[in-house]
What we know:
Number of strands: 13
Largest sheet: 7 strands, mixed
CATH topology: Jelly Rolls
Structural class: alpha+beta
Distance between the termini: 23 Å
Number of helices: 7
Radius of gyration: 16 Å
CATH architecture: Sandwich
Number of domains: 1
Helix content: 10-25%
CATH superfamily: Alpha-ketoglutarate-dependent dioxygenase AlkB-like
Amino acid sequence: MEPQIHEVISYQDDFLKKEEANSLFKHLIKYDDLTEMMVMQAATGDTFKCNFGKMMFIDNDLIATNKFPAIIWGTSTSWSEEMLTIKQRVEQLTQTEFKTCVCIYYPDGNSGVDFHSDRSAFGDTSILPSLSLGEERKFCLRNIKSKEETCMVLKHGSLVVMQNGCQEHYEHSLPINPAYKNPRINITFRKYGYETK
Length: 197
């Protein structure tokens, strides 16, 4: 039976207090690799500049074994003290270990992402916590079969947790809207590897 949307997603608008969210935003905005627009290479070999910035924080063992080469994944670095603290809070809330997080920088409302499901490129995506910092933006989910959409506004310091079944039955997007003038950072915590039964 197909799960209802409230069964596969949760939202906490005050996961971080305003002061905590402000401090983390200021910390991340200092990373030039995050705020510079990402350059990607097409299958043809041509390169193009994206309208967002990206970097990853990852566990030291993944760095030591070069699991995320920059030519494929972009910039990655060890968890900063500030990010490690947030990671531990997210892990405590979800009772799940996350070895990586992907940070995406959207400079304004002209930058967004179309409907998609998060593929399991390097690990299980049955649970994906996503922390929002900066500009409040509309976030939409769409049922893959019925195409019915549900939207909400993600507040500064809020946490969305996409749970088991979400990626299989729903797509999500951050719609472009030029009315948004300020930057936003999205932090998605991800597992590495797959559980074996």
